[in-house]
Design goal:
Length: 340
């Protein structure tokens, strides 16, 4: 079991890029301590020690420790802390690679590989193309784990119905503690309920990679240049939204979606989002296993557009990392639908 007194993470929402820069410089600035697993010690009071330095640590940091020693989370998070520590102290002796402790607000929040080299969000903000800065800033979330900035382009409008309007836009997400790399995605915003969704990776996505053959500044410049020409396929996206209004989900589609959701949230929460009971889900799974032709799928009463909105609405209840995952699942679920 996790110790009771572990440090808590922090998230804030800001109203401008200028305010975000202040938070990034003064609140969520990340420092890095290079060390090895062998030099790390943890105690049940929630304190990490490396040499003569000490920091409180978060539950996520403890998960990162388990990952580094290849201890399954399902086991690591359900055993007594003393047993976890015993396992960690024994296994760390056999891991020779260096690691980096990521520290935010004086707290250890993650553990990365030795050569970890992230893009700094503040450098991206400073180099943002004028085209992006001129768009409407819809939401700006910052936290210990990362940043998410969303813009809406009011010229990209999809009218699902007279009272249900969706706008296209862009989202930049980044983590400087190794959760995820810098990424820019085409994004949609449903005005009636403020739900957001992110496009599938095969369309409307730019990723930053640190090419060590050129300078860091050049890599940032390349990312922002690609962002300046990133386009949203409005016509295709509009067709997918309109098509989803009357499209039922197949039984195979329901189970596949549930499995993707289950990677981010509990089984009960995934059932609730999809709109089925545990009993109904298990019956669907059994029917699929018994079907002679594994390709055949049958229609259910569940509606694609409604379930898509259930996913993106529920996403707002979670922390930044889980929310990002759910909004990507919701966007991919709709985007990857074949058009009728």
């Amino acid at each position: 079991m996790l110790p009771k007194d572990l440090a808590t993470e922090k998230e804030v929402q800001t109203k401008s890029l200028e305010e975000a820069q202040e938070f990034l410089e003064n609140v969520f600035a990340v420092s890095y301590r290079h060390t090895s697993l062998e030099q790390i010690a943890i105690d049940k009071d929630g304190v990490l020690t490396v040499g003569n330095e000490r920091w409180p640590y978060t539950p996520h940091f403890m998960e990162a420790l388990a990952h580094r020693i290849k201890m399954p989370l399902s086991y690591a998070l359900n055993i007594d802390f003393d047993l976890f520590k015993e396992n960690f102290d024994r296994r760390k002796q056999h891991v020779c690679a260096g690691v980096v402790v990521c520290i935010v607000r004086g707290t250890a929040v993650n553990l990365c590989r030795e050569n970890y080299f992230p893009a700094r969000t503040i450098d991206v903000i400073k180099e943002l193309p004028k085209r992006i800065k001129q768009l409407e800033l819809q939401e700006l979330l910052l936290g210990d784990r990362g940043v998410e900035i969303s813009w809406v382009d009011r010229e990209i409008e999809i009218k699902v119905s007279p009272s249900d309007v969706i706008f296209g836009g862009f989202r930049i997400s980044n983590s400087e503690i190794g959760i995820r790399g810098l990424k820019a995605s085409a994004y949609t915003f449903r005005q009636v309920c403020s739900n957001g969704a992110v496009f599938a990776d095969e369309r409307g996505v730019i990723r930053w990679s640190h090419d060590r053959r050129v300078t860091y500044a050049t890599n940032i410049e390349r990312f922002c240049t690609a962002l300046n020409i990133l386009e949203i396929p409005k016509s295709e996206l509009s067709k997918k939204y309109m098509d989803s209004l009357e499209r039922p989900i197949t039984d195979r589609g329901v189970i596949n979606l549930w499995r993707r959701l289950r990677r981010a949230i509990s089984a009960e929460q995934a059932d609730s989002i999809v709109g089925i009971s545990e009993k109904e889900r298990k019956q669907l799974s059994a029917q699929l296993r018994q079907r002679e032709d594994p390709v055949i799928a049958r229609l259910t009463s569940l509606n694609t557009y409604q379930v898509h909105n259930n996913i993106t609405a529920t996403a707002k209840q979670y922390d930044l990392t889980t929310r990002r995952l759910l909004e990507e699942i919701g966007g991919n679920f709709l985007w990857r639908l074949p058009l009728n």
